[in-house]
Amino acid sequence: MSPTGIDLAEATFTDVGETAGHGYVALLPVGSTEAHGPHLPLSTDVIIARGMAFRAAELLAERGVRTVRLPPLAYGVTDCAAEFPGTITISASVLETLIVDIARSLECQGARGLVLCNAHLEPAHREALQRTVETARGAGLRVVFPDCVRKPHALALGEEFRSGACHAGDYETSLVLALAPALVRTEVQKSLPDHPVSIGKALAEGKKTFKEAGGERAYFGFPARASIENGRRWLEALARMIADEAQVLG
Asked: Is the pTM of this model over 0.90?
């Protein structure tokens, strides 16, 4: 078995057919196309989600679970950053329908279930994923959504993450440094002042957008503190979360 399972985008149908005969768990990276400060790419959440899925596939292979990594879903409910150029948002209903249809198609091909490897943390997006799981299970489909915002997972992702001031800050910047360092504008990153405003708290208080919450440059937290070492540590925690919850399907 490959240590990273099968990458569906690079596989042939015969590759997948051979794996399907033994049963497999499908991993769907879920991200967004969204402003992440002046130093990170719009694809930040996609990069992180793909990295989570890749490392989780390695861990699951060590446990004897076959996986197929799907092409990432690059769009989500992304209303908070909609004022920034390049951000693309879709409705919750579209997101839910798409994922349920993907799960149904995979089941017909022999998948044991679908795991949502999500890196986009906007509350409305996460709520849509939770509803997706409920809808899928109501239709007899096996879908799992390991949510890193919930305990105990959040406890392993650093103080900034737990504070809610973590959009394009230390947490996400460190992960991109670990996964795609060439895409981080490090000179800009190192010059950004701390912005310790909890976007989570601001949204809970009724703010609707990053700008309303004080994020005029589309970041919250401490991007200048980011490091590859932090990113590697948090990636491992995220991957173990996925692998542990995915194992029930294998």
From this structure: yes
